[in-house]
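Task: complex structure prediction.
Instruction: return structure tokens for all chains below.
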Amino acid sequence: MKPCASAKSRGFVSCHVCGLLSREPSHRTTAGAVTRCRRCGARLHARKPESLARSLAFLIAAAVFYVPANVLPILHTTAVGYDESDTIFSGIVALWSGRSWPLAILVFIASILVPTLKFLVLGFLLWSTHRASRWALYDRTMLYRVIDFIGRWSMLDVFVVALMVTLVQFRGLASIHPESGALAFALVVILMMYAAQAFDPRLMWDRGT
Amino acid sequence: VQVHPSLPRVNRVLACPECDALLHVPQGVVASFHCPRCGCAVVRRVDGSLDRALAFYLASALFFLLANLFPIIRIEAGGITLEATLVGAAWALGAERMPLIGAVVAATTILIPALELICTTSMLTLAEWPHAPRVLRFLFRISQRLRPWNMVEIFMLGTLVSIVKLEGLASVIPGMGLWSMAAFMLTHAAASHVFDARVFWNEVKVAR
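Output:
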């Protein structure tokens, strides 16, 4: 790893929207004023404000919904002689036993593996950054990149619920209705996206180098 | 590091967006440049011409319109045919006393993609004209903020999962909306790949 100076330590702020470097305003001249990027007009912050606290708050909020999202049913199917509720997990089991193995694996990854891993990874990143850990900075940055990119794909199951509910409405024969687990799951995905967006990976490098 | 001499100049000093390392990017336009410290792709481009980005965005806007107008899937069982459109899916959830999920689906698959397309196409069109940098700044910021919340491609994957789930229950006919959505996915991915914010701001500066 090459020794690098951070932009912040040299008095620069990079715009988080367009990437332009600006001189960090001195506190005397701009006390209380909002500084904006001179190119794209976004608010300038050397680091995302209150990054760790905000990220942790979103993560805790997501954790609250994580249990109902996995325990409560997301779909209710009514048909002649059939009346059953499906959770996320039982939906995957149904796909698996229906011999749609690749799809079962896909839904398992999107709905169970990714949210769980994202939860653990972001928790670990927050904890290690809080402790100013120097350990594996490169790999931790990569982990952040991966979870930030992949998290949105967990929305998959919510869209499947939306389509099934819309399509399967054969009155008196078969119908599918959404259940509260789907709402909890959508909230988990959204809150986790906010948690990842609030986290500033540059803090790891500030504190670890 | 590949240097492409025919393309316009860019800022030579940049900060890595992920680790804040102060980087000296070689002169000329760099086709791809990774941060030596954390490996983040700081500069990445194929051919960042704004016209190509605009063409792809316009094409994806057209396909997005078609994806919204035509049904995505149609199912048939016992003589009854049912179909789902994008709006219909959000509406059905609202009708099933789940307006919040309905709103999430409507926002991520209709409203946000539409807004993003309006912002990107209008800012790329306006970039050629020598006025309104304020409007451009606003459109640029909005489009950047909205990007992660545009989930049409995930909805598309969800459609494929639903088709497999429904196959045992009814005969499934993929509709025009599904093909349009696939075309939207490809053209939109191409557009955001080709669009280069630095070239965009270079052009705007010239116009001013």
